[in-house]
C-alpha cells in the first residue's frame, strides 16, 4: 500500500482517538468544576506515590469497594462514614491522607469532614479510581489480586471510565 493511502487512512483514525481522549478529559474537568468546590486539594494520579507513608481512603459504597480498590486502601464509605472510627484508625492529625471515590466528588465530601476533624494533610485523588485506571493504575479485588474490573457507579458516570471492565451492580 502506498504511503499516501496509508496516511489517508491512519491520520483520521489517530485524530479521532486523540479527540475522544481530549473530550473525555474535558468532560471530567467540567464535571468536577461543576460538582466540587475544590475545598480539598487535588493530587493527580500520576503524582500519587504508592507507599506506606500515605493512607488511602476509599469513599465509595461497600459494593463498589468490593469490586476493586487501590492497593491497601481503607474503606470508609460515604453515607456510612464514621468520624469517631476515623479518629481511632488514624490518630495522627498530620498523617498524609488521600481520599478517592469514582471521580472525586464524594471523596471531596469526606475530605472536608476529615479537615473538620483536624486532619491537616488531606488530598482528593483527581478523577478518582476512574482516572487512576484510565492512566493504567492497578486496582485490586478483595483477595488482593490485580483486576481490570472497576465499579462504574452508573451509566452516566461510567462513560468517564475509559480503561478496564465496567461493572454495574447494586
From TrEMBL:
<dbReference type="InterPro" id="IPR050229">
    <property type="entry name" value="GlpE_sulfurtransferase"/>
</dbReference>
<protein>
    <submittedName>
        <fullName>Rhodanese-like domain-containing protein</fullName>
    </submittedName>
</protein>
<feature type="domain" description="Rhodanese">
    <location>
        <begin position="50"/>
        <end position="141"/>
    </location>
</feature>
<dbReference type="Pfam" id="PF00581">
    <property type="entry name" value="Rhodanese"/>
</dbReference>
<dbReference type="InterPro" id="IPR001763">
    <property type="entry name" value="Rhodanese-like_dom"/>
</dbReference>
<dbReference type="InterPro" id="IPR036873">
    <property type="entry name" value="Rhodanese-like_dom_sf"/>
</dbReference>
